[in-house]
Structure formats: C-alpha cells, structure tokens
Amino acid sequence: MKTLIIFYSYTGKTRELAQTLATKESADIIELKDQKRPSTIGAYVVGSLSAMRQKQAKLQPFQADFSAYEKIIIAMPLWAGFPAPAFNNIIPALPSGKQIEIIITSGSGNSGDTQKRVQTMLSEKSCTLVGFRDVTHISRS
Ligand SMILES: Cc1cc2nc3c(=O)[nH]c(=O)nc-3n(C[C@H](O)[C@H](O)[C@H](O)COP(=O)(O)O)c2cc1C
To answer: Ligand 1: which residues within 6 Å by Cβ?
Structure first.
C-alpha cells in the first residue's frame, strides 16, 4: 500500500514522530514549512487564533499528488485545541472521498473535541477519518 505522511512541526516533536513512522511504513513524507518561522509569541497569539478560526498558515509552496496514495496520514501539533493552521492548507488540496488518518501531537493528550473538529473539517471534503491518535509529548529532560 502506498502511504503518504504529510506533517507540520513547529518545535520538532511531530517531525520526529513523522520521520520514524515514515521509515517504519516505507512511506513518502512531505513537510509543510512556514514561509517565515513565527516567533513563540506569534505562534501562541496569532497562530493559536488562526488555528481556532481554521485559517491557513503562510507556508512555502508544496506539491502532493494525494490521489496517488492509498493511505494518507496527516500529522500536526495541537494548537489551542485545534490542529495547527497548516492543517487548513491541506484540506482544500485533498481529493474528495479520501480516507485519512490523523496523528495529533500535544502537550496534554486531551483531544476529545479535536477529533470531532477534525472529523467535521474532513467531512467538508467528503473525506473520511479512518484513524485518529493523539500522541502526548513526553519530556525527556
Ligand atoms: C502555539 C501553540 C499552541 C499549543 N496549544 C496546545 C493545546 O491547546 N493543547 C495542548 O495539549 N498542547 C498545546 N501545545 C503543545 C503542542 O501541541 C505540543 O508540544 C506538540 O507536540 C508540539 O509539536 P511540534 O514540536 O511538532 O511543533 C501548543 C503549542 C504551541 C506552540
């Protein structure tokens, strides 16, 4: 099965997870990158608001032929209870009818509402949420 993992990471945790998973699943991997990395305050204030309002991030252009994959995994950090704004850049690019798996990384692991929100956002593209995981970051310090 051809698998694509597409992810965004601000502080590196989601990147680490996505890269490990891509190796394990022999998946193709695409990282969504900011045009300009937001400052910490920018991420918490502007970024969180954008996430809550489901607004897109200013990203470097990316290309993904989603239709070429049988399995698509989107990995995103949780920002203010929503997937980080880069998630909203992916949704319009998804072909309708796709089955999508979501991996959220978060500080709390408390994403019951997030799953419902993501499901709603995907259903607008007639996509189906076939897997949802919230991976709480465990500090190694
Ligand atoms: C702007 C911002 C907002 C966040 N909001 C939440 C939140 O609402 N709930 C939570 O559990 N963690 C929150 N976090 C923590 C991140 O979701 C968590 O550390 C995540 O694993 C970071 O992934 P990354 O290193 O790939 O960016 C937030 C982090 C940032 C930077």
So the answer is: 9-15, 43-44, 47-48, 77-81, 105-108, 137
How many Å lie between the centroid of ligand 1 and the Cα of residue 39? 14
DSSP 35: S
**Domain tally, the chain:** 1
Which structural domain, as residue segments, surrounds residue 56? 3-136
Of how many residues is the chain composed?
Answer: 141
User: Residues 57-81: pLDDT tens digits?
Assistant: 999 999 999 999 999 999 999 999 9
Assigned domain for 141 exists = no
- Write down the pLDDT at residue 26: 96
Centroid of ligand 1 to alpha carbon of 14 (angstroms):
10
Atom of ligand 1 nearest to the CA of 48: 1
Q: How many CB atoms lie within 10 A of CB 93?
A: 13
